[in-house]
Automatic annotation (TrEMBL):
Transmembrane recorded as keyword: yes
Alphabetical keyword list: Cell membrane, Membrane, Transmembrane, Transmembrane helix, Transport
Pfam families the record matches: SSF (PF00474)
Recorded family membership: Belongs to the sodium:solute symporter (SSF) (TC 2.A.21) family.
UniProt membrane topology term: Multi-pass membrane protein
Native source organism of the sequence: Salicibibacter kimchii
Gene Ontology annotations of biological process type: carboxylic acid transport
Stretches that traverse the bilayer: 6-26, 47-72, 78-96, 116-135, 147-169, 181-201, 242-264, 276-296, 359-390, 411-428, 434-459, 471-492, 498-516
Record has Zinc-finger as a keyword: no
Compartments reported by the entry: Membrane
Protein name: Cation acetate symporter
Amino acid sequence: MDTQTLVSVGMILVTFVIYVGIAIYTRSKETAEFYVASRGIPPFWNGMAIGADWMSAASFIGMAGTVMVMGYDGLPYIMGWTGGYLFLTFLLAPQLRKYGRFTVPEFIGDRFNSDVARVIGALATVIISFTYLVGQLSGSGVVIGRLFAIPTWAGVLLGVGIIAIYATLGGMKGVTWTQVAQYLILITAYVVPIVFMSLQVTGNPLPWLTYGNIVDEIGAIDREIGLTEYFAPFSESTQSQFLALMFTLMIGTSALPHVIVRFYTVTTMKAARWSGAWALLFIGILYLSAPAYAAFSRFILMTQVAGQPMGNLPSWVDRWVDTGLLSVADTDGDGILDWEEIAVAEDMVVMATPEIADLGMFVIGLVAAGSMAAALSTAGGLLITISSSIAHDFYYRILRPDASDKKRLNAGRIAIFIATIVAGLLALDPPGVITQIVAWAFAIAGGTFFPVLFLGVWWKRMTTQGAIAGMLVGLATTLSYIFLALGGFTIFGIEDTGAGVFGVTINFLTCIIVSLSTTTPSQEKQDEVVDLRYPEQMTYKDGEVWIKEEDYKS
């Protein structure tokens, strides 16, 4: 094992000790701690935990690489994900928090007084979270595979073992405080390299101010060698695909069960809104940095690696070729590696850039630790969500309503362990790159849940039959389009990653048509829906708004 590997592995092991220590110290002892951290997380720290929950391997490892490879056409990921948080913060999270449940399926089941709706919601939650989890485990395989110079599939198996131990120790309470630590590690690991790259290339340590000039220089190089100019719009996809992908990611963000459940961990609606605001700030730091990461990485590759003799390539080239994420080939036989002869996978860009830019072993180790933090933080939240759906919505609410707290906790931990193993096996042969797999999860979440949640909160005429029909039709439409698009069938050039635009539209239409065709909900249920629009200190009933007695006296 060389010095670089020792440093990287050592830094990762230190972070593992921190995570496990936090999980043991905050170990959940009752179901309220396990599922919603007893609703006692302050908004600032919850915002940071949401940031870590959100910044998955797709964001940390995949997003900058996607922008680097696709240029302008990779930007829907940034715009869609950020816009989705605005939807969630203002239109759904405070209202769902006021309803006061543990999970998204529980809200749907109780809002529509239907165990059928609850079961459909729980099944969809498991499908969405498994899809997302496969992407995260695949990301952890990239990191571990590179560190130990082993194939990515072997890295996936090691990652599964680590996550299974880590996730079963804590519940939501342990996961929350672990995610706070993971956010601090991953954001430091993401920003430090681009500060050094900006200094190295421009002499200015503020990459957010300098990368625009680098984009201009990349465009000039592209024109010189006859390529489509970098950041030229719609060179890698169609305009319809651009818009559909952005819509899918935006709506999907608002409907992801593992993101929504984080807003159940605070005390009030106001705290839920502040959690969303803090989360936007913390997430924005990474998202504003991703285009700079992509520009500097591409510029260094084009100017310092392309054009070199094949026999004089840097030592890191062979290591990344071994992972299967980089290929170089002297196809024209001139002995020189041209830019067109380099094939870079999106998933290697962030991990490889510190080596490409020769930033030193500690920066490389820091990025490795940050990558693992990103993969683990989202995986932890997803596993809690899967566990909640199986142990709370299925086991407790449907099968064993008289189950003790101890049995429910054991059921949750068993569900986490089994889910980790199954997702790990699926991640051994991922059906796409990380960002693509994650985009499917967003499409399914938006197509299944967003119309039902949005109308369930804001439309008192929404009925049980409308919700059930909407979820089934939306889920079936989204899954069908993903498989058809993978087989080559598309509508208006929209690919599998933009499938949510069809699922959401048909789900909305189904909910409205079926609801208007069925019996109007009771007045009590309609008042319950209108009441969600007011702060906790107020209650809506019989057409009037009442201030609660205890708040009035104070």
